[in-house]
Write a structure and sequence with these properties.
Layout (H helix, E strand, L loop, with lengths): L7 H26 L8 H12 L1 H30 L12 H7 L1 H25 L5 E4 L2 E4 L1 H8 L3 H28 L7 H30 L1
Helix pairs in contact: 1-3, 1-7, 1-8, 5-7, 7-8
The chain binds protoporphyrin IX containing FE.
Length: 222
């Protein structure tokens, strides 16, 4: 059966939509994670509990994991196809910044992908499928003490370095990915495109930087 998503442009479209959904997830995830830096982890634990148990959010979680898989699978198919349709490699190096980030999308994706798998084992699977995460009582209700788990992790230099290393590559991936997703959706306009590009650059710096602040503050000040 042939449909739009079996065509190259259809796959790219679906991949971009999944990418934009993931861009939104990162903003929400960062917003909640920053709560861990407050004096107590109560707000973070309550927010994490809400995100883990609310039925609406649970549906979003399925969409999220589906989105990550679609983005990875279609990204791989597109990279393989691009390789095939370009049998003779371009001889001339293009030194523009855009080409630098776009050239290494596949490589940066692999590092971010490995990070996500390790990251899920660090927190998500532990909280969902094991009882190793301590419990904490807030206003008479029991919660997983994920805040304490985050702090324990980032007291270890290997995790601080590992996470920051991944965030640098996440930044590179987002740098090109952000504007590329909107371009695929056909948003190509003489006045809007430069704004989207500029917003993408700011996003790709601020979001990973926001994530990086968490291990740094915990390691040095907690
Ligand atoms: C310092 C940075 C980060 C911290 C402290 C952190 C913390 C956490 C925690 C505690 C969970 C488990 C939530 C639960 O089970 O209720 C989680 C889940 C998750 N994280 Fe992160 N995270 C960070 C950065 C990232 C980044 C950069 C990405 C993506 C590139 C990411 C992707 C995910 C995903 C996909 C999940 C599973 C879905 C969810 O529970 O929302 N995280 N993270």
């Amino acid at each position: 059966m042939s449909n739009i998503f079996s065509t190259s442009i259809g796959r790219k479209l679906l991949m971009s939509l999944a990418g934009i959904f993931l861009l939104t997830f990162l903003v929400v995830h960062l917003g909640i994670n920053l709560l861990v830096l407050r004096e107590t982890q109560d707000a973070f634990n309550i927010a994490a509990h809400f995100m883990g148990t609310n039925p609406v959010i649970k549906v979003f979680e399925i969409v999220l994991f589906g989105g990550i898989l679609i983005h990875i699978i279609y990204g791989m198919i597109l990279s393989i196809q691009n390789g095939k349709s370009r049998p003779v490699r371009y001889k001339k190096d293009n030194h523009s910044q855009t080409s630098f980030f776009s050239k290494y999308m596949f490589h940066t994706a692999i590092i971010v992908g490995i990070f996500i798998v390790i990251h899920l084992f660090d927190f998500y699977f532990k909280a969902k499928f094991t009882d190793v995460v301590d419990s904490v009582t807030i206003n008479g209700k029991h919660y997983h003490d994920l805040g304490e788990l985050v702090i324990e992790k980032f007291k270890m230099p290997v995790f601080v370095f590992g996470y920051i290393f991944a965030f640098i590559f996440l930044s590179f991936h987002l740098h090109h990915g952000f504007q590329s997703a909107f371009q695929t959706l056909g948003i190509n306009h003489k006045s809007y495109t430069p704004i989207i590009k500029a917003f993408g650059v700011v996003y790709s710096i601020l979001i990973p930087l926001g994530f990086a602040i968490i291990p740094i503050v915990i390691y040095f000040f907690r």
